[in-house]
Write a structure and sequence with these properties.
The protein is 38% helix and 15% strand. By secondary structure, it is an alpha/beta fold. The protein has a single domain, classed as Aminopeptidase. Strands 1-2-4-3-7-10-8-9 form an eight-stranded mixed beta sheet, sandwiched between helices. The longest helix is centred in the C-terminal third of the chain and has 24 residues. It binds zinc ion (ZN).
């Protein structure tokens, strides 16, 4: 749900200048750097064990996977694991690519197990989300079987991902899908879902929600599939749009209402799951604040607090240049899944590799952190996730 949360593209040069100025002015740390107390804390920790090698014998996907590479990777995985893996196309995009869903069965495919659905790559420029989905799938498939079914959509927006890597648009900017409309291209799929959808930003905006709810083939594909399933117990939608101030957030519904709009009886249950996810996914070796769990509409205040901590003197200016007027996100996936289907849904916003980076820099950062992230998310599926289902 990046657009509501992070630095606007047009303000990035100014923000970088302000960050450097703030550092000079007050000796404050810049985003992502450890404060003296954090450095001290890290030094006091025992040696952090080396991460184990990837669980899968299958070659990892690249850190910038095209839709073709995703298909090839899934073919290899299916050949390796036989009847435990199945793939299907649940829809076709405006440019004719398939929206692929992968099923990882714990045992006999004919038995109806509880299902956890993971959505990755809904935004075309968040390649690390797709990488995490495939790495997680490799690990789960090669490890001991679970007692529930895991279904993944590794790349919900293949048109956007391929365009982002094509060289025909500036890299790391192709958030939307690629359907032309009103002399602009693309719809923000995570504003196009049908719960609380609202017409808002124009077609030129990175948050253009489309001409109506479910106007896009990709959102319709996932909606239609979900509506045929009666056993989905939890949905997580994985993004990487947060600023680099902390490790990220785990949000729970609702994202589209100023006051949250959640029945008080539901909040503790959703908050507990989100908190558990946040704790499990946080990297203890990362000096930045750990992932935080919150209702999605609270993210703006959270990011403001992070900016204030980094820029104690000029934080109002930085916040003014960094944050859009509202971080409320009508028409998001988690709101529809929870509001319409009553399935607990969570939006993971992992810390984004610096968005001003070129592809090689972005790729290097993804490579550095991918196995740790996949290992921790696998751990959640194998332990805490089971207990919460
Ligand atoms: Zn996103």
């Amino acid at each position: 749900m990046r657009g509501d949360l992070l630095l606007y593209q047009s303000h990035r040069p100014l923000l970088l200048f302000l960050a450097a100025y703030a550092q000079l002015l007050v000796g404050s740390s810049v985003a992502g750097a450890a404060t003296p107390s954090q450095r001290e804390e890290i030094q006091q920790r025992p040696n952090i064990p080396q991460l184990p090698p990837p669980a899968s014998c299958i070659a990892q996907c690249s850190s910038l996977p095209s839709s073709q590479e995703v298909m090839t990777h899934l073919d290899q995985l299916r050949q390796r694991h036989g009847e435990h893996i199945a793939t299907e196309s649940i829809g076709r995009t405006a440019e004719g690519r398939d929206v692929i869903l992968v099923r990882l069965y714990p045992g006999n495919p004919s038995i109806r197990y509880p299902i956890v659905l993971g959505i990755f790559g809904q935004h075309g420029d968040e390649h690390d989300s797709t990488v995490l989905g495939l790495d997680l799938l490799d690990r789960l498939a090669d490890g001991p079987p679970l007692d529930f079914e895991v279904d993944l959509i590794p790349q919900m927006n293949p048109d956007g991902a391929d365009a982002d890597l094509s060289g025909t648009v500036p890299p790391l900017t192709c958030r939307k899908n690629r359907r032309p409309e009103s002399r602009a291209v693309g719809v923000d799929l995570n504003r196009n879902w049908g719960y609380g959808w609202g017409a808002g930003p124009p077609p030129s905006s990175i948050n253009y929600p489309g001409s109506g709810p479910f106007s896009e083939a990709e959102t319709r594909a996932v909606r239609d599939w979900l509506q045929t399933q009666s056993n989905v117990r939890l949905v997580m939608d994985v993004h990487s749009g947060q600023s680099t101030f902390d490790q990220g957030t785990v949000g729970f519904p609702f994202a589209g209402k100023e006051d949250g709009g959640l029945a008080s009886v539901d909040r503790p249950r959703l908050a507990a799951i989100a908190d558990n996810l946040a704790r499990t996914l946080s990297d203890p070796a990362d000096p930045r604040p750990a992932l935080s769990a919150m209702q999605s509409h609270e993210v703006r205040a959270h990011v403001e607090r992070a900016i204030r901590a980094h820029f104690p003197v000029i934080w109002p200016i930085v916040a003014w240049t960094s944050l859009p007027p509202s971080t409320i996100a009508p028409g998001s996936s988690i709101d529809w899944v929870y509001g319409t289907l009553c399935i607990p849904a969570f939006g993971l916003e992992l810390s984004r590799p610096p968005s001003q980076a070129e592809l090689p820099t972005y790729s290097a950062i993804v490579e550095r952190r991918r196995q740790g992230l996949a290992m921790r998310l696998e751990n959640w599926f194998r332990t805490r996730g089971c207990q919460l289902l």
